[in-house]
Amino acid sequence: MSEDVTALLKRAYQDEIETVMNYMTNSIVLDGVRAEEIKESLKTDIQEELTHAEQIGNRLKQLDEKPPGSAAFEARQHELQPPEDSTDVLSVINGVLTAEEDAIETYRSLIEAAEEANDPVTEDLAVTLLADEEAHRTEFRGFKKEYERE
Q1: Where is the Ferritin-like diiron domain (predicted)?
Q2: Using an 8 Å Cβ cutoff, are 93 and 144 in contact?
Q3: DSSP H or E stretch at residue 143
Q4: Alpha carbons 122 and 143: distance in angstroms, whole number
Q5: What is the C-alpha separation between 7 and 109, in angstroms, rounded?
Q6: How many domains does the structure of the chain reveal?
């Protein structure tokens, strides 16, 4: 087992949990008619991100490791914090895009580390999660285009 693989899995686990918290908070605090579609998308993505965290946690367990608890938590998604202005939907969209880019980078690094460690199970999981994050990024890029046109 590679230390790089487990370190990346633990980072990804924490990032997914943080994403759930920020998506939930933003889906609650955003206001306005224009915010409804974004709020619904965030609510839908919460369950998917929770599932990602669970899959990563289970993989860590299989590798005789354990997912980090809250005492080890380090917040990193500064751009995804709820906006001061609850109608500032574009700041949330940009925050989601930043978080998705970070997740994509983490999963690409995990794919490489797992391949080097000859760990095809982790590599397969990372490929699946990468595809999900790329789909989220595409969806929010579309939202951003719509908001920038107005």
Answers
A1: 1-150
A2: yes
A3: helix 120-149
A4: 32
A5: 11
A6: 1
Residue 90 · residue 143 · CB < 8 Å: no
Q: Which own/partner pairs from 63-71 qualify as long-range (CB within 8 Å, at least 24 positions apart)?
A: 63/1, 63/5, 63/6, 63/9, 63/122, 64/1, 65/1, 65/6, 65/9, 65/10, 67/10, 67/13, 68/10, 68/13, 68/14
CATH number of the domain residue 82 falls in: 1.20.1260.10
Stated pTM of the model: 0.94
How many angstroms from the chain centroid is the CA of residue 31?
23
Dmax (CA) of the chain: 51
For the segment 14-34, what is each residue's pLDDT rounded down to a tens digit?
999 999 999 999 999 999 988
Return all residues near 96 (Cβ < 8 A) that are at least 6 apart.
23, 42, 80, 136, 140
Range of the domain at 128: 3-148
Report the 10 Å Cβ neighbour count for 81: 14
The total of other beta-carbon atoms located within 10 Å of residue 36's CB is 12
